[in-house]
Write a structure and sequence with these properties.
It is a single chain. This protein has a single domain, classed as Alpha-Beta Complex (Spore Coat Polysaccharide Biosynthesis Protein SpsA, Chain A). The chain contains eight helices and seven strands, in the order βαβαβαβαβαβααβα. The protein is globular and about 50 Å long. Strand 1, helix 1 and strand 2 form a beta-alpha-beta unit. Helix 5 packs parallel to helix 8. The chain is α/β, with parallel strands linked by helices.
Length: 246
């Protein structure tokens, strides 16, 4: 069978599985149960990138899942960046007509992947995401999220979204091909939203509940500083670009 004869899935889902290890099995099974309710051919792209010489077993578990399910595809590369780098590698592996991304740590309900897909299709939108109406994690994480979204709205007004970093995010392949994603650390959620704003996409949101992560938390001070620094840099770059156009 040639590549031209391969069936293109209707729905590609990038699952960020970094260091989830055995929980990867649990969450992927929950995702399959949810997405199977849609009448659409789908693929799960499990991103199990790893730091060399680490003891992370996620990639071995992801390959086991792939061997037992034709809907699963694994991306497992030595890491050259943070979460943003992982997400871009996952997007590059997607072949579907509609693309979504979700964290694999269990904080986002798997059924949200059904809800955002249905909203995108039913309302003929370009881009849909969730926003967290309730967070079950720490007060510190809540405070950081509120402050970050406040800064984002000041620097990038006019985009009616409540929660920049919330997932899943979903968009059409046509939208993906217009995005120019270059982040390598933690900034990619904001980078996506900045470009959604620039492209004037038809956008929707649905509410969700953010569950506590009992395994690990990767949002350190360095990541917070990166968020703020990159927001300011992106705003200055946008201002200079508009000034040149004039």
């Amino acid at each position: 069978m040639t590549d031209s004869n391969l069936k293109i899935p209707g729905y590609s889902i990038v699952v960020l599985c970094y260091q989830t290890e055995e929980y990867c099995r649990v969450y992927v099974n929950e995702l399959i149960d949810s997405v199977s309710k849609l009448n659409v051919d789908y693929e799960l792209v499990l991103v199990a990138n790893y730091w060399e010489n680490s003891n992370d077993q996620t990639r071995q578990i992801a390959y086991e899942l792939q061997n037992n399910n034709p809907h699963i595809k694994v991306v497992a590369l030595p890491k050259k960046g943070g979460m943003s780098w992982d997400m871009i590698r996952g997007f590059e592996a997607c072949t579907g007509k509609i693309i979504a991304v979700i964290d694999g740590d269990g904080q986002m309900p798997p059924y949200d992947l059904v809800r955002v897909y249905q909203k995108l299709k039913d309302e003929n939108l370009d881009f849909v995401k969730t926003y967290r109406t309730k967070r079950e994690d720490s007060r510190y994480r809540n405070f950081i999220s509120v402050a970050y979204n406040f800064i984002f709205q000041i620097l990038f007004p006019g985009l009616s979204v409540h929660d920049v970093n919330s997932k899943p995010k979903i968009f059409t392949r046509e939208v993906y091909e217009k995005l120019n994603l270059t982040s390598s650390g933690w900034f990619i959620d904001a980078e996506i939203m900045i470009q959604v704003r620039r492209l004037h996409l038809k956008t929707g949101e649905i509410p969700t509940i953010f569950k506590v992560n009992t395994r690990a938390s990767y949002v350190k001070f360095e990541a917070i500083w990166e968020f703020v620094k990159n927001l300011i840099t992106a705003r200055i770059r946008e201002f200079k670009t508009k000034k040149k156009v004039k």
